[in-house]
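Notes to self after the call with IL:
- keep both proteins in one doc
- input above output, always
- annotate only the second one for now

Protein 1:
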Amino acid sequence: MNSKIFRRYGTSFQSVEMDFDAKALNDIGFRRNREVAIPVADFEAAYTALGTVELKTEAVGPVQYETKQVLLDRLQAKVEELIAKLPTGGIVVVENESGHDYPKTRQVTKNIVERGENKLHFEYSMEPSLRVASFGPLA
């Protein structure tokens, strides 16, 4: 199985791909790729929880789109780092639920004066954290 990222949809865990795009309405996204679907009972019989982490990041810069994309790239790197540390056969599960506690980017725009010119300065953060659980195969 090549899929390493899953989300729960109803009675099954389904494989997803990261879809972090600063131009999208839902910039922190996970898109179902329909490669693997595991019923909850089978999942619980095959995997054991290794731990949960809350991922958060920030970015600051002078260009709105680029600053937001830096935040998303950093978040993606953190997820990829977590996947790289998994044991053989391990997976991660995104625990945040759409419409309930799903992370969103937050923007603060400041007007700064630089060499006598007014310039915009963007600060991006995310709230709440992206909660990702690691699972390893049962022996």
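Protein 2 (the one to annotate):
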Amino acid sequence: MRFIIHTVFIVLIALVTLFGLGPVLLADGSMQERTITAAIVVLIYIILAVLYGKVILWSRNRK
């Protein structure tokens, strides 16, 4: 069960990194657009980290 949880979150983080940081680093838009995109990507990372912690605790307490 924990293997599946780890795999899902690794894939989610990889997707956020690919589709989130790519536009921040490689976009030719304005600096404001890059800043807003970076803030959203950081917010998604924080949400994933909190959710990951809760899911791991849930899987431990499930036994």
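Annotation: The CA atoms of residues 40 and 58 lie 27 Å apart. The two ends are 11 Å apart (CA to CA).
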